[in-house]
Design goal:
Blueprint: H1 15-22, H2 28-40, H3 49-74, H4 76-82, H5 87-90, H6 97-115, H7 118-135, H8 145-169, H9 175-195, H10 200-206, H11 211-215, H12 217-241, H13 245-267, H14 269-299
Helix pairs in contact: 2-3, 2-8, 2-14, 3-6, 3-7, 3-8, 6-7, 7-8, 8-9, 9-12, 9-14, 12-13, 12-14, 13-14
Length: 303
């Protein structure tokens, strides 16, 4: 049965329903990565505050929010069965308003990005394409757990970091910034796999081949840990070669702390995935911040 047949066809969604659709809690990762990009550019904020603020709005309340709306619209039939309380299947977002909101936010995202420079605009284009391709038929990248995880990692970490640096410099970011952002984006694939643990049963029933479904919880847990930790060693080597030994030492300590958490996670991956996602990911993003300050020292004066 088409879920649209069960929803109100008239009326406007309430602001609360729209905000729920946008899932503000999901804005933190891209905004954090954007902030790392801003810091890594090494450009003083004086005179660039408005650009930084608008870039943060682009990363979170616009692009990320748009991706959440698009995903919920494309998943409305499945959500009507598994999560009927969500805004679209519950009727709080009536009719086709879920689609309209996603499309409007796509246009607003691209319009704002266009005012922030060419590199920001094209980064936004890539993010928007990935966001729609992740959910919409017939592409639906999320059907393949590996491809979906890669797409999310790029959009949540790499592209916002790139955008933050581009916003501050008004140009293509330094190659060292792009290199470190790419490494943390690669590591974020592990975080995306961790996020799939909570929906593994639903994915299995609906034919979504997430990594936990493909590999099982134990192997998926091991892969996620390796993917998160391994790129950070390359970051340490790079920062050391660039003379940032203090920052490299900080990241080394954060890696040691992450490694110490792994045995508990591996003892019961299904039960401990939310715990490791909270603790291990926190240490991971702190390493991102340390790397950003290191890069800022290299590329220019911090603040």
């Amino acid at each position: 049965m088409d879920v649209n047949q069960t929803l109100p066809k008239v009326g406007l969604p309430s602001p609360v329903a729209v905000l729920t659709l946008f899932k503000p809690i999901t804005w933190f990762p891209p905004v954090w990565a954007f902030g790392c990009g801003v810091i890594s550019a090494g450009v003083a904020l004086e005179g660039r505050w408005l650009y930084a603020i608008l870039g943060g709005v682009l990363a979170g309340p616009l692009v990320c929010a748009m991706s959440q709306a698009a995903n919920d619209w494309c998943d409305r039939h499945v959500d009507a069965i598994n999560e009927p309380h969500r805004p679209i299947p519950s009727g709080r977002i009536p009719g086709r308003w879920g689609l309209y909101i996603a499309m409007i936010w796509t246009i607003l995202s691209l319009a704002l990005a266009a005012t922030l420079g060419a590199w920001v605009f094209w980064a936004c284009v890539v993010a928007v394409v990935f966001a729609w391709a992740y959910s919409v038929e017939p592409i639906r990248l999320k059907r393949n757990g590996w491809i979906g995880a890669v797409a999310c990692a790029i959009c949540y970490e790499g592209l916002p970091w790139f955008t933050g640096a581009a916003v501050m410099t008004g140009a293509l970011p330094d190659t060292r910034i792009i290199f470190i952002a790419a490494l943390y984006s690669f590591g974020a694939i592990g975080i995306m796999i961790l996020n799939d643990f909570k929906s593994a049963e639903g994915d299995r029933r609906t034919g979504v081949a997430s990594v936990p479904v493909i590999l099982g919880f134990e192997q998926a847990a091991l892969v996620s840990c390796i993917l998160m930790i391994a790129p950070q060693f390359i970051v340490i080597v790079a920062l050391t070669l660039w003379g940032q030994t203090i920052h490299a030492a900080i990241i080394t300590g954060l890696i040691v702390a992450q490694v110490m958490l792994v045995p508990k996670f591996m003892a019961d991956p299904e039960a401990h995935a939310p715990w490791y996602n909270g603790t291990g990911t926190l240490l991971y993003v702190l390493g991102m911040l340390a790397s950003a300050f290191a890069l800022g020292t290299i590329t220019g004066a911090i603040l």
